[in-house]
Amino acid sequence: MSASQPDVCLIIGAGDDTGSAIARVFANEGLHVCVVRRPRHIEKLETLAQSLRDSGGRASAHGVDARDEEAMAALVKEVEDTIGPISVAVFNIGANVKFGIANTTPRVFRKVWEMATYAGFLMAHNVAPHMIMRARGTMIFTGATASVKGSAGFSAFASAKAGLRNLAQSCARELGPKNIHVAHVIIDGAIDSTFIREIVPDVHDLREKDLILSPDAIAANYVTLHKQPRDAWTFELDLRPYGEKW
After folding, report:
1. Which domains does the chain possess?
2. Cα angle: 24, vertex 37, 21; to 5 degrees
3. What is the per-residue pLDDT for 2?
4. Tens digits of residue pLDDT in 135-160
5. pLDDT at residue 3 in the model
6. Is the dihedral of CA 178, 76, 113, 17 positive or negative?
7. What is the pLDDT of residue 1?
8. pLDDT digits (tens, 9 = 90+) for 163-173
């Protein structure tokens, strides 16, 4: 790694909406953005990376299963060795599923945990040594309402997101004194995403009334977290539309 290499923002779970918005804002900040999703999404990732480059940013696409221990270790090593130091690591995998407890199979429960908790551990586990060595960096974990409230029908999702929250909290207590900012963001409400637009008929009305979370607004808060002075770091930030019940 040469001194001229750019700082990197690694985004695990760079989906079509929030993940892409996070990629755009960090690319605009001058970081090289490494967008990561499962290999079957590589074409979408390449399109996203190209759009960032077309806008004057630096970006690369990486088709990696975040649940794969060896693949995640290889990804972080590749980025650090060939692209630049990881200054920001964002874990943004959702894994939102709804099944009654009687219909939640052990396989579903395990898979949701792997996506929403274990993969978050793999990111932190592999990125932390590099940040510790440099005594700087930011890790941001995307949470949900389920991080703090286990609603009916969400046993798998709620337990996995609560686990991710506690993982982030443990990392924050361990790494904060080493000058590494760890934050957990609770997204409390529906996001104006492809998924929501497909199932909610009045999204336009919600958008006009500011009753649905904008991916761009979420992403702007992630940059704010990264830029916070260390004498006033936020660990947990909850974001919700003004009309959301909580």
Report:
1. 8-239 (3.40.50.720)
2. 20
3. 52
4. 999 999 999 999 999 999 999 999 99
5. 55
6. positive
7. 47
8. 999 999 999 99
Mean pLDDT of the chain: 96
Kindly give, in sequence order, each residue whose CB lies less than 8 Å from that of residue 206, ignoring residues fewer than 6 positions away.
190, 192, 200, 212
Q: How far is CA 24 from CA 27, 32, 227, in A?
A: 5, 10, 16
State how far the Cα of 36 lies from the Cα of 62, in Å rounded to an integer: 5
Mean pLDDT, to the nearest integer, of 49-68? 98
CA distance linking residue 24 with residue 56, whole number of Å: 11
| Encoded tokens for 122 | 């793999």
> Taking a C-beta distance cutoff of 8 angstroms, is the pair 186, 142 a contact?
no
Give the total residue count for the chain.
Answer: 246
Backbone angles phi, psi at 58, to 5 degrees: -120, 130
Tokens of 210: 């500011």
Residue type, 52: L
pLDDT beyond 90 at 197: no
- Sort residue 144 into left (φ over 0), alpha (ψ -120 to 50) or beta: beta
